[in-house]
Amino acid sequence: MSVHSLQRTLLNLTAWLLLIAPPLTAQTAPLQYIPDPTFSVLSRKGAPKDIIYGGGKRSICLTRADPARGLTAIVPPGDFGGLSATTNPKFWVYMPYATDTPLSGVLSVRTIDDFRSAPFIRVPVTLPAQPGLVALKLPTSLIGATSPLLNHPGVLAWTLTVVCDEENLSRNPFVSGLVMVTPQPALLQRVARLSRSEQVLEFARSGYWYDALDLVAGTDGEIGVQRLMESAGWKPAR
Q1: Given 15, 40, 62, 82, which is the most exposed site by the fewest CB atoms within 10 A?
Q2: What is the pLDDT of residues 27-40, one digit of tens each?
């Protein structure tokens, strides 16, 4: 084969490889949650003392599937609260219990206005019998411009109590968190044009924890939640 024939063959092969090769895409930016500086629970004074934000209480009347994992509110490490661009955010928790039948629970939510706490509104919920992530949401009748619960924007304190002892309520485990509802129609319109992974990045770096969490938990489950938690500074136990 002549040199010219070999060159033509190589050029034809290169063109063919370019046609069948997948298109190059831009490298995905790393996921990083950046908390909004105007909302830091730990830096605010006069916060209600009757809620353990981001924490809770262990159960003495339920059995964990994994003794090392307890009832957990999926909230930013350290702050225990984040922003929501939607007016009715989901509250995500990890349920560690394995039971024969579904569990009963109570979702308690109230507004905080300059840290003068309004009474809790309590909504009964049914919780799964097997361990895993659970999303909780208020009925739409309790959220909105005419609702007594919240005049947007505002801060909601929420608590999930798992009812395993109706006679001795102090035995029931619970977890709590905070969410600042700041409706952002412009942000929602902008991210609507992005891919799902890009939406997560945009919400996370803008401080919208609950919106980013809703996307990763709904799509990638516990793996996605762990990625988001680690991007906010959480380090898994070794």
Answers
A1: 15
A2: 457 899 998 877 66
User: 0.90 exceeded by the pTM?
Assistant: no
Query: How confident is residue 203, by pLDDT bands cut at 50, 70 and 90?
Result: very high
pLDDT at 155: 81
Q: Which two tokens stand for residue 141?
A: 């009748």
36-57: b (≥16 Cβ within 10 Å) or e: beebebeeeeebeeebebbebb
**Inter-helix orientation angle 209-231/196-205, to 10°:** 80
> CA–CA separation, 95 vs 132, rounded Å?
5
The Cα 72–Cα 93 span in angstroms is 5
Q: How far apart (Å, rounded) are the C-alpha atoms in residues 173 and 154?
A: 27
In whole angstroms, what is the distance from residue 230 CA to residue 52 CA? 22
Query: What is d(CA 215, CA 225) in angstroms, rounded to the nearest whole number?
Result: 9
Other C-beta atoms within 10 Å of 77: how many?
Answer: 14
Neighbours of 131 (CB within 10 A): 16
How far apart are alpha carbons 129 and 95 in whole angstroms? 9
Cα 203–chain centre separation: 11
How far apart CA 35 and CA 224 sit, in angstroms, is 18
In this predicted structure, what is the pLDDT of residue 4?
Answer: 44
Average pLDDT of the chain to the nearest whole number: 77
DSSP three-state, residue 81 = strand
